[in-house]
Amino acid sequence: MEKLKVDPKSSPEGKVSNLSTARAYLLACSLLLLAMFLLVGVLLVSIADHLNHDAGEHSRIDIENALLSVERVAGSTVKDYAFWGDAYVHLHQQVDVDWAFGRQNLGSTLFADLGFEGVFVVDPTGRTVYSVIDGQLQTVAVQDWLHIPIEPLLAQAREAAVNSQSVSRLVQADGAPAVLAAAALTPGTDPSVKADSGPASVLIFIAKLAPQRLAALGADFGVQGLRVAPPGGTAADVPSLRLRDNAGVVQWDSDDPGHQLLVLVVPLVTVAGLIFALMAWVIQRRSTAAARIMDSNYATLQASRAALLVSEARFRDVAEAASDWIWEVDSQLRFTYLSERFDVITGLKGANCLGLAADDLLASDQGLLSNWFKDHAHRPNAIVQCNYLSGDGEPRICRLSVREIPGQGYRGTASDITEEVQARRRIEYLSQHDALTGLANRSRMQEFLEGKLKAVPTLEQPLVMLSIDLDRFKPVNDLLGHAAGDDVLNQVSRRLQGCLRGDDLVARIGGDEFMLVVAGMSSPLEVEGLCRRLIDFIEQPFYITEHEVFISASIGIAMAPADATLAEELLRYADIALYEAKESGRNTWRFYAGDMNARIIERRQLEADLRHAIKNGELRLDFQPRYRIEGKRLAGAEALVRWEHPRRGLLGPDVFIPIAEETGLILPLSNWVLHAACQEAAGWPDDVMISVNLSSTEFQRGHLVARVKAVLVETGLNPARLELELTESVMLNDEKVALDTMQGLKALGVRLLMDDFGTGYSSLSYLRSFPFDGLKIDRSFVGGLTASGGDQSIIQAIVGLGRALSLTVTAEGVETLDQLKALKDVQCDEAQGFYLSVPVNAQAISALITGRTD
Ligand code: C2E
Ligand code: CA
Ligand code: CA
């Protein structure tokens, strides 16, 4: 995408507005126009002036020409008369007035017909010898009439006559211009007349240019109103001409073409100017308005350009900063734009992908993208998930948000959601599977079961639900560590799967609990066969590091539709059956039966009853005495709790202790036992010990040291007389806590005994690392003692160990004399059992103690 650069000169601040530009332009135009008009005006005036001037000049020339023509006519006329033999004879050689005037040769006709007001003949002496004025014979000297010296003229005339020419000039006569023509009298071409030697007389004709004649003369030459200027001078605006030979000044009416021009053109120019001005005004208004609009448009444009730049920059930043890439396709769904992020995210080359069809790059689960776009892209927030191969060839997933560009194609963003989808799938998987074994978990199993039940299993084709619980698994976990436990669980899950067909399901629903959903079993026998196989498989040894581990399993069976048709019921019944299987000695299976449920309900009822048992005083203690084998002296007694249930009668601890442990009632129960036992023992002689059993659950809960201490304080019992019996499981969960607690108890001064020794895995190692004072050999070993020996070697080893560790060794469950003898043989310290005494009540134990023999 091409980058737009911000040009500071084009910024709104840097730009002169259109309005002021337009105003400046208009002002300049107006000034130019004005100047033009002024120039035109000046030119017009100057042209008019020139015209006027030219017209004046023309008129002057015309007037002069007119006067010249008059002169010429007069000159030629005078020549005609002067170069005539008769006239030479009658007016030069002698002056014959009669011939001249009388006979009208040079008489009044010259005035009347030719317009000469004065006719004169001047003889060589300069005397006027003949004169006719206004057609009348008069005796007037020419110079007197004209008031000018005449001699130069006479000389010129005589001279010109040599060339047969006359002379003419303008003169003033009676205050008016007049044309004077003079010619020397000569015989002319008349051979009969002989010219005199000496100067000739000169004939002079004078024609006055009277006003009418002058006006007519002007008119003949196109000059109107030609007249003699008034004596006071002429007005400046009236054209005038000073005549040659000082003949005066004439003036005439100017036709004033300049004025005419001005009169004609000025209004036109004015009108044109006005029109221009008006137009200029209108244009100015319009262009000002336009400029204003342009200005505002420009400002808007600049603002929107700036906004565009900002938005462009923002888009670019967002496009580059976003984790999404931005795309555009044309109406053929070919890529026309891919943002820079495309390359980064997809690992593909955006430049190579331009022009590529969207379907070639992206694949949607919803079918071809081209079809999907047609159907869905017009909706707001259209989103489609697509798969594609990254530059590395890895399958990736992206989410396209699509927006239609009407008539052009589509655009939108693409977010890579590969990790999100994978995480979601992982979460989905985890929510459906057990993280450790990868088996289905409870919720997946329930879904599966519900699905299977919807297919409506029949009695002939039942659906079998197996609930499996591992036996003896907990010690593996506890003794070999969680990693080993996990290993066993994984192997178990593989073994279970190995027993099933593909469409059956194995689920792990708890620590060591599994559920199997099996279809296609036709008879209970077949189910039993499966259960046997499952248990056999699980009983195969597991090899965990260097250990060989043996566990087993109990199985509860429920079937649909025989037992139930609802998933929840089926699961519950399988659990009840499992409980029954465990109750009946483990390593076995049980089919669900209707009365099982009743037993479970009974157990729940017992739980409820136990809550009231303590405060209702339904508990009591029996005491089983323990004897020194050597000398058979009563050494102490073990407190054993009993529950006198109001309806069920006397219940043993094996029935309700597990319930108390499960429900947390063990703490109040144990407190009661401790208190009651110590109180009883406080009344016994100092050398009789009292033993109290502790549950491993209360051992972990803490406060045990404080509780024991409180009981000792309350009852006043010497701590050295109290023995606490712990089983190995106390130490299994958290050795550190166990050790701390045991040391705390030891600090109180009480003794610690290990109960049921030999039944666990590591009894021996525990004996070494924990502060025990004695151990009680489990009665299963004692039961194996016979007259012939039996388990004697084991008991002998245990006794030897106890002695080595300075522990008091007690044998439990001594039921026969032989057993007692055998124990005596291996030098076991103490014995307890029905053979010596069954557990008895407080009163009876007191009697036994009192009646003991030393
Ligand atoms: P235990 O600690 O091993 O207690 C001895 C059990 O063996 C007693 O059963 C006793 O009646 C029985 N017994 C004694 N001599 C013989 C014999 O010669 N042969 C046979 N077969 N059994 C004999 P009881 O009283 O039913 O107690 C069962 C278990 O309940 C005890 O086993 C003990 O672990 C637990 N228990 C009893 N009282 C309490 C108590 O107050 N608190 C706790 N936490 N557990 C108790
Ligand atoms: Ca015991
Ligand atoms: Ca025991």
Features:
854 residues, Beta-Lactamase, eight-stranded mixed barrel, six-stranded antiparallel sheet, disordered N terminus, binds ligand C2E, binds calcium ion, EAL_sf
Question: Can you describe what's shown?
Answer:
Keywords: Membrane, Transmembrane, Transmembrane helix. This is EAL domain-containing protein. Residues 311-355 form the PAS domain. InterPro entries: Biofilm_reg_signaling, CHASE4, EAL_dom, EAL_sf, GGDEF_dom, Nucleotide_cyclase, PAS, PAS-like_dom_sf. It is a single chain. By secondary structure, this protein is α+β, with helices and mostly antiparallel strands. It folds into five domains: 1-75 and 256-322; 83-209, Beta-Lactamase (2-Layer Sandwich), CATH 3.30.450; 324-431, Beta-Lactamase (2-Layer Sandwich), CATH 3.30.450; 434-592, Reverse transcriptase/Diguanylate cyclase domain (Alpha-Beta Plaits, 2-Layer Sandwich), CATH 3.30.70.270; 604-853, Alpha-Beta Barrel (TIM Barrel). The protein is 48% helix and 22% strand. Strands 23-24-26-27-28-29-32-33 form an eight-stranded mixed barrel, surrounded by four helices. Strands 3-2-1-6-5-4 form a six-stranded antiparallel beta sheet. The chain has a six-stranded antiparallel beta sheet with strand order 11-10-15-14-13-12, sandwiched between helices. Helix 19 (594-613) packs across helix 20 and helix 23 (704-715) runs parallel beside helix 25 (735-748). The chain is rod-shaped and about 235 Å long. Mean pLDDT is 86; it is low at 1-14. The structure holds ligand C2E and calcium ion (2 copies). Residues 624, 639-641, 652-654, 657, 673, 693-695, 725, 755, 779, 812-815, 833-834, 839 line the site of ligand C2E.
